[in-house]
Amino acid sequence: NHLVLGLQECRELPEYPNDVALRLINNSPTSILFCGDPDQWAPKGHMEDLQKMQQSAVIPHNVYTEYIDLLRHDFVVHPEQIEPVINFVVSRIRSDGETSGLSIRSRL
């Protein structure tokens, strides 16, 4: 049941983002899109925690975060919210390709 799985995921969410995982993938640009409140899977507070970790050099600077207030976690069922997500993904692929020496094709 989807509701049971969703509740289980919410219960298992850490209080803070996993900085160990982000340090392990430090050679790969990483982009994380955060949705508007209320989002229990990826709350805005986690994005703010990640930004503080970057300022303290706990995680690498190649972790890019963005917050879209109007976006909801279930954006795929809201046609008007799909375009901002696509724009984010394409923008990050292009940006990472320009800065990391990888081609866009290698990122798809």
What would you note in describing this structure?
The chain is mainly α and 108 residues long. Helices cover 51% and strands 11% of the residues. The chain has a two-stranded parallel ribbon with strand order 1-2. β1, α3 and β2 form a beta-alpha-beta unit. The protein is globular, with a radius of gyration of 15 Å. The C terminus is likely disordered.
What is the fold's blueprint, element by element?
Blueprint: H1 2-12, H2 19-24, E1 30-35, H3 44-55, E2 63-68, H4 79-100, H5 104-107
Parallel strand pairs: 1-2
Produce a short descriptive summary.
With 108 residues, the chain is mostly helical. Helices cover 51% and strands 11% of the residues.
For this entry, give a set of tags.
108 residues, mainly alpha, two-stranded parallel sheet, 5 helices, globular
- Strand and helix order: HHEHEHH
Biggest β-sheet strands, sense, barrel: 2 strands, parallel
State the share of residues found in helices, binned by percent.
40-55%
Anisotropy-based shape? globular
